[in-house]
Amino acid sequence: MRALLSVYDKNGLVALATGLADLGWELVASGGTSAELAAAGIAHRDVAEVTGAPEMLDGRVKTLHPAIHGGILADRANPAHLAALAARGIGLIDLVACNLYPFTSSPSIEMIDVGGPTMVRAAAKNHAHVAVVVDPADYAVVLDEIREHGNVSEGTRRRLAEAAFAHTAAYDAAIAEWLAARDDTAGALPRSIALVLERQQELRYGENPHQRAARYRRVGADDDWWAAVTQHGGRELSFINLIDAEAAWSLCHAVVGDGEAEVAAAIVKHANPCGVAVGRDLAAVYARAFEADPVSAFGGIVAVTGRIDGSLAEAVVAHPLADVLIAYGYDLDALALFAARRKNMRVLAAPRPQAPLLAFRQFAGGCLVQEADPAGGRSDEWRVVTARQPTADQLDDAELAWRVCARTTSNAIVLARSGQVVGVGCGQQNRRDAARLAAEKAAGRAEGGAAASDAFFPFRDGLDAVCDAGVAVVVQPGGSVHDDEVIAAANERGVAMVLTGERHFRH
Known about the structure:
Blueprint: E1 2-7, H1 13-22, E2 26-29, H2 31-39, E3 45-46, H3 47-51, H4 66-73, H5 79-88, E4 95-99, H6 115-125, E5 131-133, H7 139-149, H8 154-182, E6 197-202, E7 214-218, E8 230-233, H9 239-256, E9 263-269, E10 272-279, H10 282-292, H11 294-297, E11 301-304, E12 307-308, H12 310-318, E13 324-327, E14 329-330, H13 332-341, E15 346-349, E16 358-363, E17 366-371, E18 383-384, H14 392-405, E19 413-417, E20 420-425, H15 431-442, E21 450-453, H16 460-468, E22 473-476, H17 483-493, E23 496-499
Parallel strand pairs: 1-2, 1-4, 2-3, 4-5, 11-13, 12-14, 13-15, 21-22, 22-23
Antiparallel strand pairs: 6-7, 8-15, 9-10, 9-11, 16-17, 18-23, 19-20, 19-21
């Protein structure tokens, strides 16, 4: 039995090679892999010894040879293939361990691997006879099967082949995207996007219990922050749990920004906020987020940008059951309390989220793709267009309402006062109803605060609804043919109005 070892990632290499050698396998290695084995004192043959041809072109050509690929690709059930190998003195290769140059870590022409993908694809094609391993995590599985059965099982070879083709597909996709990004004629978005996804997590169910679901990630991607999330307790996660948890966690970080001394808490239901608050004291911030809409908070997702101690845990369990709680971490007494009194609540510890660059939506047999909306806060583009000028505190509330509004389903109106979101109207077919719903939920708590609208007010009726709630400042994009009428209405109602010049629809 013979194995070909040619890996960029040397993790686990010596253990694999030692295990195979102890089982009597002949080892063949190339380049840096050969040097690693030699340093470990593991007997092997160099690829150049097998091919009779030295490496060429600074290592660009070393394994591209019939003595290598004939041994990998031969159909052991075809006598003509075996005769052809025998006539040329080519030995069979039973296992290929190969992973590729990490192209995404330092994209360049020299980081484009040619020989590696060729070997991987050849072995994966011939997985009926050859095992191909691209992930060091699979070395132990392969060794265990060889020790027990003398070979790698058919089922494992097939699984490894699937992983190998996904590995090379993702590799080629990364190169294609890099080349497209360097092409000035390609426009803002690449001409082609290859999405190669691998299943990471089986979910309890999809949007409904009769739908199966799983979480996938892009093969080779380094932006999967969910991979660093730890679940400390509760039921298995469902499709909606993940959507809402990400929405709540991202919203928390959007309203406090980077490097801020403030902390934030958000409660999300069906991907829309029902309570958000910012401040300096985590327990107080959580309480204010909950108080915004206690009815909607039942069965919602709670996110806080801090660590949960025993005292805050007591406050969480005193309120109606949350489906998911997500924070940076938990004290042991907090986890013990949740285990005793909130057995079903999913308790997640997570790092800061990573904002995607592109947003995808399945559509008519393909995808709609757009740049992700950063939905930032106030900027030099904001203009006060009314006689009344907002105070500094009112502008702070306007910014909070604006950031939350941008992450709320359109049509969206958000009311905030003193660092607390007190009313949210979302998913409405017209802006007036969204404003009335937000005002109804605020129930008088918006007096002197701020209102945000994700798009312009087409008529004054929506503005009148938030003014009836008592707000002192309204922030909106502007851009309607009726802007002058709406601004005049704001002056009539004695409120300040700020135009951002930027819309934030979310569908």
